[in-house]
Write a structure and sequence with these properties.
By secondary structure, the protein is mainly α. The chain has a single domain, classed as Cytochrome c-like domain (Cytochrome Bc1 Complex, Chain D, domain 2, Orthogonal Bundle). The protein starts with a helix and ends in an 11-residue tail after the last helix. The relative contact order is 0.15.
């Protein structure tokens, strides 16, 4: 029985990983706007996995083990460490250094920092 579960997981991973990479790469590559607005950039490039609240509680996020950006573990990273992870990728997270410039990555850092300060269930204002 355990072997069947492992096989199903492998098949699921084979299907999900390319889909994940496509969904992450396409919006980032399609973004021609060089505006360093962290909230917009997060929504376009990060929220598919990390969720709009940074929790990682999305279908893709759960499948790839996206980190909860609100957690103490994520928040204790230095700005340089966060920059490097966005730029170069880490684990299942693809690198965004080829699609986002330095100013754009820099604008994501304060946005990520403030995710831990938002109360649970807070809604974005339109």
């Amino acid at each position: 029985m355990f072997t069947r579960i492992i096989r199903k997981f492998r098949v699921g991973a084979i299907v999900l990983v390319p889909l994940f990479l496509f969904t992450i790469a396409y919006p980032a590559a399609a973004q021609t706007d060089k505006d360093p607005d962290g909230a917009k950039l997060f929504d376009v490039n990060c929220s598919k996995c990390h969720g709009p609240d940074g929790s990682g509680n999305t279908a893709i996020g759960k499948a790839v083990g996206a980190k909860d950006l609100r957690s103490a573990e994520a928040q204790k990273l230095t700005d340089a460490q966060i920059y490097t992870q966005i730029d170069q990728g880490k684990g299942n997270m693809p690198p965004f250094g080829g699609t986002l410039n330095k100013a754009q990555i820099d604008s994501l850092i304060p946005f990520i920092r403030q995710l831990s300060k938002k109360p649970a269930g807070a809604k974005k204002s339109s």
